[in-house]
């Protein structure tokens, strides 16, 4: 019986995959949408994965997922493992993965650079506004998480901390906390102390305790012990947050900076994010957003273990 169940589950998962025109696997549960972005002066694309049962009504929290950089203009499509991990933990959430690069701009670091290149504004303001208009979301900060891998983890941390009015859950998976060059080996100089400080999570620690007290926050960041580029930066941020008594969750895991770690832990990390978000609301109760979200006022302080 167990073998039959495993085979049936495998067939069900496989049934969502087809070959696209170029012979690549395409996940039918993931659809693509576009919006006209004034922040970027272009049509911005993003992938959307809806939870099982979405067509039956209800409102759902949204996990905004940021991919790594440098990247092609189509990197946002590669979220199949996120959707599958969410299903494995019984997660009832919408996943939105925005385009975060384009031809000639493959490593924008999720920062606002100026007219026509304001990636932070597009992700923090334009996309959530569009998603709330067109999908049955829980349209407040308690219904939104910002999560990312590698450079996307940097973007999630920075954008999330800049926009605590928009997101109540921030998770960085193998991210860093200052802008880097495309190799991730050197910190970028943005031209002024003020610009450098605004682009660094380290510089935000001093004000985060007060702002987090006003806006309850789950702040989590995770990295592999063998991640030679970004482990030290994460350990440093953990120490700074602990010294400032800012509640957060930090973990070191076996593994490096690779898909093996992310795929193995995605269910755990997404489950943690979901537990902190306002839960999905079914049927008639979904006519208005959930009004009693979970208490995040005292998230655990978890020490890192270098």
From TrEMBL:
<protein>
    <submittedName>
        <fullName>Putative esterase</fullName>
    </submittedName>
</protein>
<dbReference type="InterPro" id="IPR050583">
    <property type="entry name" value="Mycobacterial_A85_antigen"/>
</dbReference>
<dbReference type="Pfam" id="PF00756">
    <property type="entry name" value="Esterase"/>
</dbReference>
<dbReference type="GO" id="GO:0016747">
    <property type="term" value="F:acyltransferase activity, transferring groups other than amino-acyl groups"/>
</dbReference>
<dbReference type="InterPro" id="IPR029058">
    <property type="entry name" value="AB_hydrolase_fold"/>
</dbReference>
<feature type="compositionally biased region" description="Low complexity">
    <location>
        <begin position="285"/>
        <end position="294"/>
    </location>
</feature>
<feature type="region of interest" description="Disordered">
    <location>
        <begin position="285"/>
        <end position="306"/>
    </location>
</feature>
<dbReference type="InterPro" id="IPR000801">
    <property type="entry name" value="Esterase-like"/>
</dbReference>
